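Bumping with the actual sequence this time:
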Amino acid sequence: MAGVTRHQLDNGLTVLLKEQHSAQVISWWVLYRIGSRNEHTGQTGISHWTEHMMFKGTEQFPGGQLDKMISREGGTWNAQTSMDYTAYFETMPADRIDLALRLEADRMVNARFEPDEVESERTVIISERQGAENSPLFWLGEEVRAAAFRVHGYHHEILGDMADLQTITRDDLYGHYKSHYMPNNAIAVAVGDFDTPDMLRRIEALYGAIPPGSPPKIFRRPEPEQQGERRVRVERPGSNAFLEVAYRAPAATDSDWFKVAILNSILTGPSGMGGGSVDNKTSRLYRALVKTEIAADVDGSLMPTVDPYLFDIVATLRPDRTLEEAEAALDAEMQRIASEPVSEAELERAKKQARALFAYSTERVTAQAFWLAFAENFENYTWFEQFVPRLEAVTVEDVLEVARRVLRPQNRTVGWFIPTGDGEFAEEEE
């Protein structure tokens, strides 16, 4: 992607700008380098709750009026909390983007965290967690992740543990905000129909005077090496059994990440972010599990993350099949791909699918701005630019070698969801 320029203000704010004049629209993102992986025990879920509080407004931009202000100008806005970051965005008609710039500059400093609104939002946050708990896959995923990570902050869900959601205080939330929401811990990105010098001058005028804070002490605990296969069983009301197998996978900055991405594409079809999907009916696990009618569905997931995370495979079993059958079929495919080189034709098909999903997922200015901020958070924006060439560089030998290292039983956590049959819950992941 041509035309990205990187700037850093004197207060430490990183700014990425990319002109794209195909439509009179601009997407503006502000991403903070703080996510659920940085949360202490007792404060899990605090990053996500803080994100909610940022929509309660400031003195200049009252919360009750923000939705109307954005929609009146023809824009959309939202936010997201991840394991590795918390981000906010507005996508607006190009001649109305100043509202977004002013709003994010103001709430970087002036969010209020009124005590009554904190308590009101506690109910919302707890309800969100309870809603997620309606899915068997939430319970299974939480147990698998907790078993896979004993020490690292990837151990807990982004939503947080219920015990913490019931006890986090207003001062905890405000302290989290003041400790991490500062220009020298933020990445700002604009993509769309603007002139770069003009945009940079306006950003400097609005954000340049915001003082940098003391560099935040980012909480991080490295995960020790796994010493053997781990297994969990979840027995809860439901109508379907699920198998989840999570292999420890490299961080996005590791060159092996792209090899595992191709491995994922071969086994389950490519996984992506920002929307879009590619049919996985040619994937090995679809053929081994779905076409044999052991499973109704199988999916894989590989996220680009700051620290080593997981290559995750989930199968939804058919009612008349067993978890033992599903696991045996999956294991046979893991052993085959780790012992026999894939064909060049299969490799090229996997690359083509991954390219297609990436292109679809990054078509709009909103997605492009997100990916630039996202990549800058763990390395720099050029990771995004080099995504397709680095996929293309993966060879048959690379796939075989990384499969042998990653797809070992000693490197995985296996989870079984065993339905007790006394309830009906949703069968798809939230």
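The tokens above came from a reply further down the thread. The chain has 16 helices and eleven strands.
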